[in-house]
Amino acid sequence: MPVLHKLVLLEVVSPDHRALVIMLSFISWTFGMCFTALVAWLIPNWQYLALISCLPSLLGFLYWRYLPESPRWLLSKGRLGQCVDILLEIARENGKEGVSRRNLEEELKHLTLTQQEEMPFTQALAYPKLRLRAILVFLMMYSVFVVYGILLLGINVMPSNYFLSHFILSISELPSNFLGWIITHYLGRRFMCWFTYILLAVFSVAATFCTQDEWLLLIVLAMAKLLATQGLYVIFVLASEIFPTPVRTSGIGLTIVFGMLGMVVCPYVLNVGVGSVDAINAMLMAIYYKVVKLWPKTVRQTEGGREERNGRKEGGTK
């Protein structure tokens, strides 16, 4: 489900709104985490909690009725009529006038002849620049998800009140959604990665000196979780921008797979003890701070859909 909703959203929005849409999807995740703490406090039984947590997934079936199919996908499959219907509906909702069905059909037919051919993801990675950036995104996603997963699963910061601990660590993500969007929009993705990783390493080191004071430790870890969420946000933005259109879905999906691999190792890392865990977090962030320095400078890539053209240009030059 986390993969599905992001891919669907990115398919139906323009390139210059991707960062904003990803921010809104992160906000919904944050509120869901906060609500989980409330439900667990009201129903302190893991069996009932597991059952209740599955119920919201049933809302996914509403996609079939209320969420339109991706116009890009319909066009790639030659279903021109359905693609035109959805685009005309979008134009009406956005108050766009002067859009005729005939002109739209002609433009889409021309686009069908000039659009990029579908290619396997492995073929896209044959281009050096794209391959390097994909590897960097995979590594960054893995490292940040390790840190995020440790903070998410380590809810025993306050043994006297697990629910409050989980709620505070969850609500701390909310400011990161807005901060992440503002920083990436005005200062660029590379600066956002650098800024987030260095501060996350600082708070991870600070946490090793706060293990005797649970409230101080909770505050420091809340700041670390805020920064970890910012890191995930900017990586999702990067993944949506670096991959050319024919392989964007595969690229984002594989990026999330690397993140889930990071989550897999989190329980084993937690077994080494609180102080050692924070030291590991700091070491990871220090290493991947070096990785970020390999990333090219970017500022407001989404303006005017420029990254779409750049992605095709770089993808087509070895």
Shape: globular
Q: How large is the count of helical segments?
A: 16
User: Strand share of the residues?
Assistant: under 5%
Number of domains: 2
Mean pLDDT: 74
Unreliably modeled segments: 298-318
Helix/strand class: mainly alpha
CATH superfamily membership of the largest domain: MFS general substrate transporter like domains
Largest sheet geometry: none
Q: Which CATH architecture of the largest domain is right? A: Up-down Bundle
Distance between the termini: 35 Å
Main location: membrane
Subcellular location: Membrane
InterPro entries: MFS_dom, MFS_sugar_transport-like, MFS_trans_sf
Membrane topology: Multi-pass membrane protein
Give an overview of the whole structure.
- The longest helix has 29 residues, at 214-242.
- The protein folds into two domains: 68-114, no CATH class; 121-315, Growth Hormone, Chain: A (Up-down Bundle), CATH 1.20.1250.
- The chain has 318 residues and is an all-alpha fold.
- It has 16 helices and no strands.
Give a quick rundown of the structure.
With 318 residues, the chain is mainly alpha-helical.
